[in-house]
C-alpha cells in the first residue's frame, strides 16, 4: 500500500510551451512593428536567424530538462544563451521583449539559488531597455528613465521571485511530508500485519496449550481414578487368590467389586469433568474424613485426619484438587511406603489452605524419582500440576527410611467467590 508522491512541479506544462508562445508573440509583434521601429533588411535577417536559434535552443533545452530537472550547470548555460538571444533581439526590435521575459519566470527553476538575482538582473536590463523604447537609450533623459525602470523591474521581480521561491519551498516541504507520511503509514500497516500474525499465532498457541492442559488433566484423572482403583482391585484379588478361607475371600471379593464400581463412577465423572463423588454431598473436611477412614480400613494402616484453623467452605475446584491430592498420596503410601501410620492435616491459615500428608514408611529420594514415562509416574507430577493449576504449590520431603511428608499449599478461595 506504499504510494510514492512525486513532488509537484508547478506550472510544468507552461514551462514546456511558454517560451515558444512568447517567442511567437515576439515574432508577431516584431513583424507588425518592423517598419515603425525602423528595422532595416539586415536587422530582419539577423532577427530571423536569432529566432531560429531560439527555437533550436528551446528544443534542446526541453530535452535536457526532461532528463535532468532542477537547476544545473547546463541550466545556467542555456539561461545565458537565451538571455543573449533575447537581449540582441530586443535591441533589434523592442517588441522581442515578449520573448526576453521568459528569463523572469525560468530563473528560479533553472538557476542555482545564488545566481537567481544575477539572472533576473540581466533579464531586467533587457526589459528596461525595451520599456524605455529601445536600446541603446539616447540622451540623459532616456538613460535616467532606463535606470529608473530597471530599478522598478528589479524591485518587482525580486518580490515576486521571493514569493515564488517560498511557494516552491512550501511545495517541497509538503511533498516531503507526504512522502514521510506514506512511509509512516506503510510502517504502521506492516506493524499491524505483524501484530495480526502474532495474534493468530498466540491464538493457536493458546489453543494448543489448552489441548495440552486438557490432556494432562485427563492423564492425571485416569491415573488418580482408574489406575488407583485397579491397583486396589489387584491387591484385593491377590488376597482372594492366596487365601483358603472362603469367608475372607468373599469379603475381599466384595471390596474389589466395590472399588471397581467406585472407580467406574470416578472415571465417568472425570470424563465429564465433574467433582469427585466424595464431594457430592459433603464439604472437603467431611469428604477427607471419610476417604482417610475408608483407606485405613482397606489397607489396615492407622490413618487419621486433623483439621486446624476455622474451616471454611471452599471453592469446588480447590476442594476437588485437595481431595485428589490426598487420594494419590494415600495410594502412594499404600503402594510404596509400607507405612504403619499415616496422618493427614488440613489447615486453614488466613488466605491459604495447607494440606499435609505424612507417613512413617520407607521414604524415598524425591530427586531420584525417574522421569515420567507413559507407563505411569503421573502421581507426584500430577499432584504438583493440580496444585499449580489453582496457583498453589506442592513440596515433597522424604528420605529413605525416614517416611514421607507431602505438603500442598493453595490459595483459600471461598465457595461463593
Ligand atoms: N509415600 C511414599 N513412600 C515411598 N515412596 C514413595 C511415596 N510416594 C512416592 N514414592 C516413590 O515415588 C515414585 C513416584 O511416585 P508417583 O509419581 O506417584 O508414581 P507411581 O505411584 O505411579 O509410581 C514412586 O514410584 C515411589 O518410588
Ligand atoms: Mg503414585
Give the structure's gist in a few sentences.
By secondary structure, the chain is an alpha+beta fold.
Shape: rod-shaped
Ligands bound to this protein structure: adenosine-5'-diphosphate, magnesium ion
Succession of helices and strands: HHHHHHHHHEHEEHEE
Question: What CATH first level of the domain at 282-417 would be assigned?
Answer: Alpha Beta
Assigned CATH superfamily of the domain at 282-417: Histidine kinase-like ATPase, C-terminal domain
Named CATH architecture of the domain at 282-417: 2-Layer Sandwich
Per CATH, what is the topology of the domain at 282-417? Answer: Heat Shock Protein 90
Largest sheet: 5 strands, mixed
| Alpha-beta classification | alpha+beta
Number of E-type strands: 5
Q: Could you please describe the fold and organization of this structure?
A:
The relative contact order is 0.06. With 417 residues, this protein is of the alpha+beta class. It has a 5-stranded mixed beta sheet, with helices on one face. Helix content is 67%, strand content 9%. Among the domains are: 12-136, no CATH class; 282-417, 2-Layer Sandwich (Heat Shock Protein 90), CATH 3.30.565.10. It has helices spanning 12-33, 41-67, 73-92, 97-100, 102-110, 116-131, 139-242, 246-271, 284-299, 316-337, 378-389; strands at 302-308, 341-349, 352-359, 393-398, 404-411. β4 and β5 (404-411) form a beta hairpin. The two termini are 51 Å apart. α1 (12-33) packs antiparallel against α2 (41-67) and α5 (102-110) runs antiparallel to α6. It is rod-shaped, with a radius of gyration of 52 Å. The longest helix has 104 residues, at 139-242. Magnesium ion (MG) binds at residues 328, 331-332, 379. Adenosine-5'-diphosphate is lined by residues 332-333, 335-337, 359, 361-364, 369, 376-377, 379-380, 404.
